[in-house]
Amino acid sequence: MKLPRRFFQPLAAGAPAPYRELPVKLERMIHFVPPHVDKVRARVPELAPTVDIVLGNLEDAVPIDHKEAARKGFVQMAQATDFTATGTGLWTRVNALNSPWLLDDLFEIVGAVGDKLDVVMVPKVEGPWDIHYVDQLLAQLEARHGVAKPILIHAILETAEGVANVDAIACASPRMHGMSLGPADLAASRGMKTTRVGGGHPDYVVIADPAGDAPRARAQQDLWHYTIGKMVDACMANGIKAFYGPFGDFSDGEACEAQFRNAFLMGCAGAWTLHPSQVAIAKRVFAPDPAEVAFAARIVEAMPDGTGAVMLDGKMQDDATWKQAKVIVDLARLVAE
Ligand code: GLV
Ligand code: MG
């Protein structure tokens, strides 16, 4: 099933072959807040203008005896701040489909603030059937409560079964906004041997061949490369967005930045930010490098109709590199707006 490319800019009139159109809305970070914590909730009005998306988390990290308070806190949070004034997205992460809380999460939240909610993030999605279920529930709740704007769905890719079904998940509903990699649950589901939340592992390395007497070099690899690549392809093929998920070591900004950057280079639009220090990292990473933008702008300028071949600084440019350049130039424009 091919879905309309609702989240991407239409091709400019007279543009040549399609290039990868960019997201209309800048979504560099999905910033998580725990809605049951009064102190954090009180700071949301001042937080909202500084991030692209505020997400009220109801799932993992919220203790069982605070599930109800989190739901109620989210409703208060949605009522207390005008997120549309700053163009900030308002999302919630609901509990999993096999938990006792999902129905109440959706019933209470859509009933109370469905008209303010942009996206429901659904955890532990295993196949398109999970999306169909949430899609139908949302349709019923929107109809019951007169919610005019369709609430979108964002799936977390965090089970081995979900990864196996990623293409079918990406096109499971016209409500699909995008997908995030959930490295912690995915590591557990796959039986990976790590206790970290995202990022690398000191033992996941390659060793260079010995060269004379030089010591063998060891280089750490990106543990998430395969899944991010698979997720980005599934998302882009269906006109939705891919995101890297959480990075759990708040003390290691450098490693967080490296992980976010790998995801950005591979096609992700943004990442989750769980700590205020990660917001600046996401802003820095999910925007193109100025030198790259300058070079890309030269390519676009040198090939006004996007066709043919030219040489720039000894590097061959043609229709394909024009499309690559457009991705970078368009993103730079979006960041600058
Ligand atoms: C996120 O939910 C994760 O499991 O990494
Ligand atoms: Mg998870």
In short:
The chain is 41% helix and 15% strand. The chain has 337 residues and is an alpha/beta fold.
Overview of this protein structure:
The protein has 337 residues and is an alpha/beta fold. The protein is built from 13 helices and twelve strands. It has an eight-stranded parallel β-barrel, surrounded by five helices. The chain has a two-stranded antiparallel ribbon with strand order 7-8. The chain has a two-stranded antiparallel sheet with strand order 11-12. The longest helix is centred in the middle third of the chain and has 18 residues. Bound molecules: glyoxylic acid (GLV) and magnesium ion. The site of glyoxylic acid has 10 residues, from helix 8. Keywords: Lyase, Magnesium, Metal-binding. This is Malyl-CoA/beta-methylmalyl-CoA/citramalyl-CoA lyase. Its cofactor is Mg(2+).
Itemize the secondary structure elements and their pairings:
Elements (H helix, E strand, L loop, with lengths): L28 E5 L4 H5 L1 H4 L5 E5 L9 H14 L8 E5 L8 H12 L5 E4 L5 H18 L6 E6 L2 H5 L1 H5 L5 E6 L1 H8 L14 E3 L10 E3 L4 H13 L3 E4 L8 H13 L4 E4 L2 H10 L4 H13 L7 E3 L2 E3 L1 H18 L1
Parallel strand pairs: 1-2, 1-10, 2-3, 3-4, 4-5, 5-6, 6-9, 9-10
Antiparallel strand pairs: 7-8, 11-12
The protein binds glyoxylic acid (GLV) and magnesium ion.
InterPro entries: Aldolase/citrate-lyase_domain (IPR005000), Citrate_lyase_beta/mcl1/mcl2 (IPR011206), Pyrv/PenolPyrv_kinase-like_dom (IPR015813), Pyrv_kinase-like_dom_sf (IPR040442)
Cofactor: Mg(2+)
Protein name: Malyl-CoA/beta-methylmalyl-CoA/citramalyl-CoA lyase
